[in-house]
From TrEMBL:
This is M23 family metallopeptidase. Residues 26-128 form the M23ase beta-sheet core domain. Pfam families: Peptidase_M23. It comes from the Bacteria. InterPro entries: Cell_wall_metabolism_enzyme (IPR050570), Dup_hybrid_motif (IPR011055), M23ase_b-sheet_dom (IPR016047). PANTHER family: MUREIN HYDROLASE ACTIVATOR ENVC, PEPTIDASE-RELATED.
């Protein structure tokens, strides 16, 4: 699974303790940006692998979101291989539609700040492909789930998320830049995402 951007800065890690202490709930994905810290000029979000778009559109909790199912993904930390749901949140614009198949490197949309404070991509992976729209991250935020909210995403009561830094690698032409953002929001594994051709 490739990184989502050509050049990017990791901002906040999976279940990072500082995040939980600050916001009062856990972080079930990673936050990555080309814009914060001026990591890169190409703000397109690229598909991590070959997959199928399960949902794409506006959600009152996650902003512009894309949900993709990627089959047979390798967790390079544990050696496990499983199908993964990927949820991309806060996009400025979306280039794909529900039902479309995507190839690794296809453009999914553009990094944005919809339904969040500052420009970044929230990317989370989960092994429970039977319930692709049920996000534990949405569940973590009660303020996202009043009657007017969550029109695409739903509260996920079961946490089947996977640490994105354990399934992502840097593909050809991809780079991460050193965080100028407070690195205490990152985990050790976020600094050692491996390279793969
Ligand atoms: Zn996030």
């Amino acid at each position: 699974m490739r990184m989502p951007f050509k050049r990017q800065m990791m901002l906040c890690g999976y279940k990072n303790p500082r995040y939980r202490a600050y916001w009062g709930y856990s972080h079930y994905g990673v936050d990555i940006s080309t814009i914060q810290g001026k990591a890169g000029d190409d703000h397109n979000v690229y598909a991590s692998g070959d997959g199928t778009v399960y949902a794409a559109g506006w959600d009152n909790s996650g902003g512009n979101i894309v949900v993709i199912i990627y089959p047979a993904c390798l967790n390079h930390k544990t050696g496990e291989v499983y199908d993964l749901v990927a949820r991309y949140m806060h996009l400025q614009s979306i280039f794909v539609v529900k039902g479309q198949t995507v190839k690794a490197g296809d453009k999914l949309g553009v990094e944005g700040n919809t339904k969040t404070g500052d420009y970044h991509l929230h990317l989370e992976f989960e092994t429970d492909t039977k319930w692709p729209m049920y996000s534990p991250q949405v569940s973590a935020r009660d303020d996202w789930m009043d009657a007017s909210q969550g029109n695409l995403l739903r509260k996920g009561v079961t946490d089947c998320t996977v640490n994105p830094s354990f399934v992502l690698h840097r593909g050809a032409g991809q780079a991460t830049v050193r965080p100028t953002y407070n690195p205490a929001w990152l985990n050790a594994e976020d600094f050692i995402i491996p390279t793969k051709g």
